[in-house]
Amino acid sequence: MSDKRATLQLQELYSVKDAICVVTGGASGLGLTISQTLVQNLAKKLYITSRNVNQLKEAQKYLQSLNNNCVVECIPSNLSTKSGVDTVVDYVKARENQLDILVNNSGVTWGAKLEDFPEQAGFDNVMALNVKASFYMIAGLASLLAEGKTNTAPAHVVNISSIAGLATTAQNGGLTGGGVGVWSYNASKAALNSLTKTLAQTLSRRNIMVNAILPGVFETRMTRYGLDKYKDKILSSQPTGRYGEGPDLAATLLFLVSKGSAHVTGNLIVLDGGSTL
Q1: 9 exposed, middle or buried (CB, 10 Å; 0-12, 13-18, 19+)?
Q2: Residues in Cβ contact with 79 at an 8 Å cutoff, skipping those fewer than 6 apart
Q3: Span between the terminal Cα atoms of the chain, in Å
Q4: What single DSSP character describes residue 261?
Q5: Can you give the residue ranges of every domain in the chain?
Q6: Per-residue pLDDT of the chain (277 residues; tens, 9 = 90+)
Q7: Is residue 271 within 8 Å of 248, Cβ to Cβ?
């Protein structure tokens, strides 16, 4: 039976008003779309990270123009090392007593032939940024996320993974060709999917919901080369006949960071227009 006392209005169920948020890699690509979504939906404060200081400043100026009531702060840092993650964690902890939303979006990919796949750039850096950084961000900010939360008004963590974490091929895929493979990228996203589930189980009792979005092909700086070169091939296997767009990500994100998902954790939300079916 429906609880007549509950507030079921759209603006309440999917509200992020007055939320304090952190978005890693929040100055470009999908991260900027995520940042924009939070700012335009009345978040109170947003911390964004990037290695590129100029990119951070440009993003901050743009985001601030969308909502002057939301304070946007930049944290330059390389999250591929724990010390880089600690820089962000310490910065936020010095300024906040609690945190509502954490989106782990920072990521990188690498493609090369199997026999020539480089260790540091191709494997170590990809695993560090795509997996290790998310773990240490969540672990480092867990105390702020748990502060003041309840089982009906929890904190929210969203890991931006990829359908690559579900793939069984890493070579000559949609965005690659000529024997090039993205083995470390696929492996890193599969690991992030697993990490999402294990941390969801660990943190649920502390009123922290942990979920992941697994985008298919979206047009970003990271995918632009492959999209330009293999556009026809990619669209031929895409049931919707298009790439993912900003509103697709924004709507999914708002669900996962709002009261609408207060009873949702450990889920991997595939956002690919049916390409994996």
Answers
A1: exposed
A2: 24, 25, 49, 85, 88, 106, 129, 133, 137
A3: 35
A4: G
A5: 13-271
A6: 456 667 789 999 999 999 999 999 999 999 999 999 999 999 999 999 999 999 999 999 999 999 999 999 999 999 999 999 999 999 999 999 999 999 999 999 999 999 999 999 999 999 999 999 999 999 999 999 999 999 999 999 999 999 999 999 887 666 666 788 999 999 999 999 999 999 999 999 999 999 999 999 998 776 776 777 778 777 888 899 998 999 999 999 999 999 999 999 999 999 999 999 8
A7: yes
- Tokens encoding 3: 């609880």
Nearest by Cα to 268 from 202, 215, 208: 215
Q: Is 88 left (phi over 0), alpha (psi -120 to 50) or beta?
A: alpha
- Fold of the domain built from segment(s) 13-271: Rossmann fold (3.40.50)
Three-state secondary structure along 160-217?
Answer: ECCHHHHCCCCECCCCCCCCEECHHHHHHHHHHHHHHHHHHHHHHHHCEEEEEEEECC
Backbone angles phi, psi at 159, to 5 degrees: -95, 130
How many C-alpha atoms does 258 have within 13 Å on its Cβ side?
22
**Which residue reads 């890493």 in tokens?**
170
Decide: helix, strand or coil at residue 159: strand
Calpha distance 277→271 (Å, rounded)? 12
Which pTM does this prediction carry?
Answer: 0.94
